[in-house]
Design brief:
Rossmann fold; five-stranded parallel beta sheet; 5 helices
């Protein structure tokens, strides 16, 4: 029987806790001979009368996304023996994630890291544990903000 490679999805953002999710995913993928998938999303810009301006802005956003993905890829490479798969999507963040997960059946686990802030909670965690939970068919792992790097390593 051929064993399926486990792939751990991390949706990238500029939060401090993203590094907890990346660390967990990278360590877990290394232990299971799996791989990390990095998804970066950016919003669609609407300059209805100025299509050229919209196109330039989108090119700049895509270049910024590629630069940020490279930074996170380098972080993952510190802990994993396989280069992560990299994806960029344009549009509403939640819809992009739902569409990505439904179109890419190779994803084994969706990794999120919660924020230490208690003001309203994390939008992705709220979306995928409450509002959108029936729209995806992938287990979700949530990394608590109180874990140390050592504890994350031990769990992975």
């Amino acid at each position: 029987m051929i064993e399926k490679e486990l792939t751990f999805l991390v949706v990238l953002d500029d939060s401090e806790e993203i590094f907890n999710a990346l660390r967990y995913a990278a360590k877990r993928s290394a232990r299971t001979n799996g791989r990390v998938a990095l998804l970066y999303t950016f919003e669609t810009l609407e300059f209805s009368h100025w299509k050229a301006v919209e196109d330039i802005a989108e090119i700049e956003l895509r270049e910024e996304a590629e630069s940020k993905i490279k930074e996170y890829e380098n972080y993952v490479n510190n802990f994993s023996n396989k280069k992560p798969k990299k994806f960029i999507m344009k549009g509403d963040r939640i819809e992009c994630i739902i569409n990505f997960l439904n179109a890419n059946k190779f994803i084994s686990n969706f990794i999120l890291a919660s924020s230490p802030s208690k003001s309203g909670g994390d939008p992705l965690i709220n979306a995928f544990t409450i509002k959108q939970s029936t729209k995806i068919k992938v287990p979700i792992t949530i990394i608590p903000p109180t874990l140390t790097e050592e504890e994350i390593d031990n769990l992975s």
